[in-house]
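Hello forum,

I keep getting stuck at the same step: I have a sequence, I want structure tokens, and every attempt I make locally crashes halfway through. Rather than fight my setup again tonight, could one of you with a working pipeline run this one for me? It's a single chain of 441 residues.
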Amino acid sequence: MGRLRLILPFLAGAGAGAAIAMRARQPARRAVFPPGPGAIPPRGARTIAERYAATDVARGDLAVEYAPATIEAPELLVDGPAFFPRLLDDLRSATSSIHANIYGFRPGEIGDAFSQALQDAVRRGVEVRLTTDEVQSGPNLTYRKFWAPMVQAGVQVTSNQGLFLDLDGLVGGKLWLDRRLDDFGHFLHEKAFVVDGRIGWIGGMGIEDHFNDGEFSDIMVRFTGEAVAQLQAVILGTFRHQGGPLPVDAAAFDRWFPAPGEPTANAVRATVLRNVPGEGFHQNSQAHFQLISEAREQLDVINPYVTEHPVIEGLIAAAERGVRTRLIIPGKPTPVFMAMALRNNYVRLLDAGVTVLEHPVMCHTKVTVADDRALLGSCNLDARSLWMNYELGLFVEDAGFAEHVRRELMEVQAAKSKPVTPVEGRDATIDAIADRFWKLL
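Reply #2:
Ran it on my machine without issues. Output:
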């Protein structure tokens, strides 16, 4: 343990240096939220996907602005016992295709259930394609035995290689080195499914047991409607960018992009948002900043990692201009140093009037609700998610849905949480020094 204590600061320093170097060489950030006049409407998503299928897809090709669309019947599902059975039912009922971007997919009770569902889907003639991340899911390295039955059954898998050689191609097949090396330092942190081209899922969970056993708390949103086509194009583009093959015949695209029908009277306005690192394309980041800066009456943020200066300053400014501002964070954070970085700002947040609540478990949820708008998805409020990862979000502009999220998520989680008091927020001098150290890293 003594050696580890000596080594850890050097490792942390090296990691911080690498992160600073990566941020220094990032391209200029483009204004991509709200989407501009050239944004792709739902009917244009198929054309984007057809272009992906026909060409080699560079990272920049993924930086597509999708126009606001509509979604039908959005369901907010809180915690694994609510969303895992519902998602598994959709996978087991799929008749044509399943496409997914999923950061964490590991062996265990939940992982095995999903693995079996995907294998069974292929055996009944359903196309299954997914892209995961090598760091968290390890299909080529850590968990090869877990992935082998899926690959052998016909599930097509590609992997983002954020910390390894940038190898493209199907897992279990012939891999090749992508000389662009554009995966390096960028994790595919997205969590999204599209089933039969008609059902979309976006949220923050991993297919891992700790999202089902009460250790981690998170949400997923299930929806249908126009925006599903845009989410489908996002997922297919990722798969193609990582070297996965796509057919180019019209019949395949007919299956993947069925006509959604006209929006009903109950449809709500929603936009699929993405962060594409290395391209200055950070829609989720800009949406979070805008929600925080434009909040007028009530602002609720629940997020496991809140360390980026513009976010913290925005919360303080909101509270100081009279907005009821509430921040829910994990009481048992993983990793702990992220919480230490935020703790250094407790005094300023509390003095400004922000209500800070510590959730009793690892609250992994990433949701911001400002007045009558809500943003839900995979994006943490730290530098890595905001600027260096692939992230997906669903931005919903509907007062009824925003109130539903506030009531069914924010109020419920707040009731479980412990308020941070001004006395608790004022750490001892030695703690403040340590917190500043972690904040810098």
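The mean pLDDT is 92. If your local run keeps crashing, start a new thread with the error log.
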